[in-house]
């Protein structure tokens, strides 16, 4: 037996060498199209979501809330930027025809129009690459207002009629779910001839004049800047809430380049040309938080989003059984400790240490309560361990499950912050987070007796969710963002080997024969 294992190990290492030699993806390859945000020819887009990740109604004269800024840098006689998206493209909105791009069904439907516009912008920005082409980084802005009388949002993916709420969700009045003003400063070369800069900004107060500055109104801004040929892009973010818009989110996302992305049930475009799967990926980024955004700012050092069904099967677009899964590390040290031994419904049923040891949440000597802010379960799960809190059923197009973490020594082994305040205001850091390793050990609900879901993440984000506060301001710089695949999966390698052409097939079979291990035992 032991001898056999040795032979297997030998073969495996030989095959790994073959694998590398043949120019397949190296074991440490980037999953994003623009590793570390270093590419001069930037690809960035904007999307705005209402409470349940749709559009609902477009803001007057703003078009569909999707836009992009993409260009290549030409260096014939000084630098110049060759833009790929026109102002007209960015202004596209309901009622505007675009044959072959916008379908008849989308023409008067703001939700569908945004989807088709995003695909179109994605095609304009697309960069050919292996294993897949990619389109852009995504700036995502979300308004947390919910008018329950609007009938706009489903409940755990099921359509529901309008209803009266009892102050559970912020909403000043009819129209509180509006889309924002979007201003766009197309990337340009500054007068030094070398610095490139562009921006998106705006407010949700559609009637606001700028005379009074930002007092009393909401505000968002993303400015990106880089010197041609030097360093990487720095994305400078600002987010401010107001009395009318006390719950806002602003993230920079690396989304899947096709298929769904976290929390979005439509075909999407993005930056993840390879989808990272737990445990084999890391996330690298530099984060410099200038202003925290107050006590209620849930600043996500990193947020990962995916989708799988409660039976472990991949999502297929059926919103009644698809479940969005999120996990987030909140680094605001003022975050309340909702999970504790007296509020077990806010904690996941168990914690798994890196060595695989599991401790149940009732084991109050060993369970690391302070490592969790809150856990909430999918509203459509049928075999939950009580006590349990279920996630908000309205704020996603389908049911969702969320696990929010806080800095704690148990996460240290994954390169995550271990103390409250690490990486917070005045403590800028470059992080290398073993997001894959950590997320492979997190608790997520699954129906008993079903095969564990493959944890494939379609969205990796950084940014803040201010929930809920008035006149709170957050400000941060993000750079060096990368998602790195750390090791090829065994099954993938095997599949590659089996798919190899004749020559390689012979080579592999020769190795197998000379080690006198037959194919069957190798497969086992
Ligand atoms: C958006 O940014 C531009 C350029 O920095 C600035 O002139 C404008 O005032 C900003 N918009 C708002 C609403 O502050
Ligand atoms: C696993 O790690 C935990 C926490 O460090 C420790 O308490 C436990 O004894 C370890 N278990 C084993 C089997 O090593």
From TrEMBL:
Please list the residue ranges annotated as the DUF7705 domain: 30-485
Q: Which UniProt keywords apply?
A: Signal
Q: Which Pfam families does the record match to this protein?
A: DUF7705
- InterPro entries (alphabetical): DUF7705 (IPR056122)
Q: Where are the transmembrane segments?
A: none
Q: Where is the signal peptide?
A: 1-20
* Protein name as catalogued: DUF7705 domain-containing protein
């Amino acid at each position: 037996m032991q001898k056999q294992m040795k032979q297997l190990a030998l073969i495996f290492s030989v095959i790994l060498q073959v694998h590398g030699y043949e120019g397949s993806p190296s074991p440490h390859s980037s999953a994003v199209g623009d590793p570390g945000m270093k590419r001069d020819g930037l690809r960035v887009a904007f999307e705005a979501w209402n409470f349940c990740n749709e559009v609902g109604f477009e803001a007057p004269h703003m078009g569909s809330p999707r836009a992009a800024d993409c260009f290549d840098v030409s260096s014939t006689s000084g630098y110049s930027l060759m833009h790929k998206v026109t102002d007209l493209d960015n202004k596209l909105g309901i009622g505007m025809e675009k044959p072959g791009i916008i379908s008849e069904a989308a023409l008067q439907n703001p939700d569908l129009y945004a989807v088709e516009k995003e695909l179109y912008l994605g095609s304009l920005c697309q960069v050919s690459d292996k294993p897949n082409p990619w389109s852009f980084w995504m700036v995502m802005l979300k308004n947390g207002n919910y008018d329950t009388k609007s009938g706009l949002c489903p409940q755990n993916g099921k359509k529901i009629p309008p209803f009266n709420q009892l102050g559970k969700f912020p909403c000043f009045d009819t129209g509180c779910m509006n889309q924002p003003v979007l201003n766009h400063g197309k990337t340009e070369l500054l007068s030094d001839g070398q610095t490139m800069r562009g921006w998106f900004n705006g407010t949700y107060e559609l009637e606001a004049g700028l005379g009074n500055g930002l007092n009393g109104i909401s505000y968002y801004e993303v400015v990106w800047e880089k010197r041609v040929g030097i360093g990487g892009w720095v994305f400078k973010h600002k987010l401010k809430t107001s009395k009318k818009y006390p719950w806002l989110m602003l993230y920079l996302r690396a989304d899947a380049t096709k298929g769904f992305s976290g929390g979005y049930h439509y075909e999407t475009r993005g930056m993840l040309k390879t989808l990272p799967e737990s445990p084999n990926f890391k996330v690298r980024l530099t984060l410099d938080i200038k202003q925290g955004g107050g006590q209620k700012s849930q600043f996500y050092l990193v947020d990962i989003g995916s989708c799988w069904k409660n039976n472990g099967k991949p999502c297929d677009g059926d919103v009644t059984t698809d479940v969005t899964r999120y996990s987030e590390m909140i680094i605001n040290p003022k975050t309340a400790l909702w999970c504790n031994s007296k509020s077990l419904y806010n904690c996941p049923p168990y914690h798994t240490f890196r060595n695989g040891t599991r401790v149940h949440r009732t084991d109050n000597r060993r369970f690391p309560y302070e490592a969790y802010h809150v856990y909430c379960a999918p509203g459509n799960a049928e075999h939950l361990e009580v006590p349990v809190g279920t996630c908000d059923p309205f704020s996603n197009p389908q049911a969702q499950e969320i696990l929010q973490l806080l800095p704690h020594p148990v996460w240290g082994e994954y390169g995550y912050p271990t103390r409250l305040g690490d990486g917070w205001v005045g403590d800028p850091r470059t992080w290398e987070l073993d997001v894959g390793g950590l997320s492979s050990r997190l608790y997520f609900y699954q129906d008993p007796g079903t095969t564990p879901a493959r944890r494939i993440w379609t969205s990796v984000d950084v940014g803040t969710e201010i929930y809920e506060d008035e006149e709170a301001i957050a400000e941060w710089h993000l750079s060096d963002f990368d998602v790195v695949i750390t090791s090829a999966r065994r099954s993938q390698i095997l599949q590659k080997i089996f798919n190899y052409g004749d020559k390689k097939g012979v080579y592999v079979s020769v190795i197998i024969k000379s080690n006198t291990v037959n194919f069957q035992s190798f497969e086992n």
